[in-house]
Amino acid sequence: MSQNIYDNQGFFEGYAQLPRSQQGLAGAPEWPALRAMLPALTGKRVLDLGCGYGWFCRAARELGAGEVTGIDLSTRMLARAAELTRDERIHYQQGDLARLELSREPFDLVYSSLALHYLPEVNSLFAQIHGALAAGGSFVFSVEHPIFTCPQPQGWLVDEEGRRSWPINGYQREGERVSNWLAEGVIKYHRTLGTYLNALIGAGFEIRHVEDWGPTAGQIAANPALAEEAERPMLLLVSVQKPLR
Asked: Which residues contact 211 (CB under 8 A, 6 or more apart)?
């Protein structure tokens, strides 16, 4: 089971103070880029994995989606999503993305924002998503960029003969990373860019767009703290499609 850090009281309270929690998609500087990667949603069935407060679920309906389902592990996040939603065509349910079994009733779009880096592996989830999409359907997601999930090495691992081997937390060394962000002991998983893309290809997807997201000059002028992201991407945005045949 995935770590349910969003149900940690301290983490949840800290997360509630973030701009993207208080302002929704308007507080997420990468949203314009993600929106440009979406297919037309008029009358479509949409699934949001790691839906949080439900901001995208409601936006999808505003963009014309006919039915939207949001799945999240956190009961606190789902309760907040329900409080903010007044739409009978948006449905929320609890689920662990690491053990998700999706129905074969096809979706036209599966979307996920900043959730997949909490999963120890993504191959099984990508296969589930591929199976749950209609032919020609899209999967659009964002994750913390591998450059971001791989901090500068703090030292080297040493073998039994005293030889240096893998750098600790180096880029090629995939796996668990523990940070103290909003709460102590937050577990995320580092994967290389190649691992993400090859897992998608292995699941049968066609890659449509990959973006090492960085802020625009206008966004930096409005929020100078974003300048760092122009030099070192924090987010990776990906759009793939299930083939028509």
From this structure: 33, 37, 236, 237, 238
> Beta 206-213 vs 235-241: how paired, if at all?
antiparallel
Q: Would the CA dihedral through 114, 185, 214, 166 be positive or negative?
A: negative
Q: What are the structure tokens assigned to 66, written together?
A: 């006919």
Half-sphere exposure of 52 (CA within 13 A, CB side): 19
β 67-72/45-49 pair status: parallel
Q: Where are the beta strands (DSSP E) in the chain?
A: 45-49, 67-72, 90-94, 107-113, 133-144, 156-158, 164-167, 175-179, 186-190, 206-213, 235-241
pTM: 0.90
Give the amino acid at 56.
Answer: F
Q: For residues 122 and 2, what is the distance between their CA atoms, to the nearest angstrom?
A: 12
Which has the closest alpha carbon to 31: 193, 188, 219?
A: 219
Kindly report, residue by residue over 62-95, the tens digit of the pLDDT.
Answer: 999 999 999 999 999 999 999 999 999 999 999 9
69's tokens: 């389902």
Residue 198 — φ and ψ, nearest 5°? -70, -30
Q: Which of 129, 168, 164 has the alpha carbon at shortest distance from 150?
A: 168
- Using the structure block, give the residue that is written with the tokens 């592990």: 73
